[in-house]
Structures are given as structure tokens and as C-alpha cells.
Amino acid sequence: MEPRTARYRELRAQLGLTKAELARTAGRSVGSIERYGHSGASAVVPPQEVIERLEAALLSRLKQIALAAGHDLRPRAAA
């Protein structure tokens, strides 16, 4: 499997978004999203831009979870 396809599948599973939410996050149409990451004859390898947008969405979600749990995300001073 192509590395970007594997990363796309991984991010999609971690984010748990609907196809419409995924399309909006990736800046693509639902039709495009449906063609990414499967193994059929019409499969398309997701563009790097889509991977980067999904990674940014996951990072944002993780930061929100950490902040909601009371974690301080400011960089710490070097010792």
C-alpha cells in the first residue's frame, strides 16, 4: 500500500469524521474523499495537501483535549 494511502486511512480512523466532515476538513468534495484510501480500480492516492490538513485537524483536536483536561501547553523554559 502506498504510504500516503496508509497515512490517510490512519488519520481518518483517528479523527472519526463523517464523509462530509472529512471533505470539509480536507478542502475536497465528498466524491474525491470517497476515492481516497480504498483498494478498488477507481482508487486515488490522497494528495499530500489532504494528509497535511488532516494532520493539522488531529493536532488541533488533541490540543483541545489537553487544554480541557487542564494541561498547560506553553513551552517550558530550558533548565
TrEMBL record:
Record CDD domains: HTH_XRE (cd00093)
UniProt GO molecular function: DNA binding
Gene3D superfamilies in UniProt: lambda repressor-like DNA-binding domains
UniProt cross-references to InterPro entries, sorted A to Z: Cro/C1-type_HTH, Lambda_DNA-bd_dom_sf
Protein's UniProt name: HTH cro/C1-type domain-containing protein
Taxonomic path: Bacteria, Pseudomonadati, Pseudomonadota, Alphaproteobacteria, Hyphomicrobiales
